[in-house]
# Entry
Amino acid sequence: MLSEWELWACANQVLTTHGDKASLHVAEQIGALALAGDAAGIQTWQAIAERIGQLTGKDGDTPLQ
# Structure
């Protein structure tokens, strides 16, 4: 598993690279890893997705305005 710093850096990079399509990119990565049977990879991308949600205010805890 990546460190907290690395997870946040990955989340930021995915947002910078993919913008409003970041969620789609994450879903594609998780789907490919699921097909490959890579549980650790799935867990890592889920952690990145959580941080993307926090960065964008779409984590379910913060109401969008």
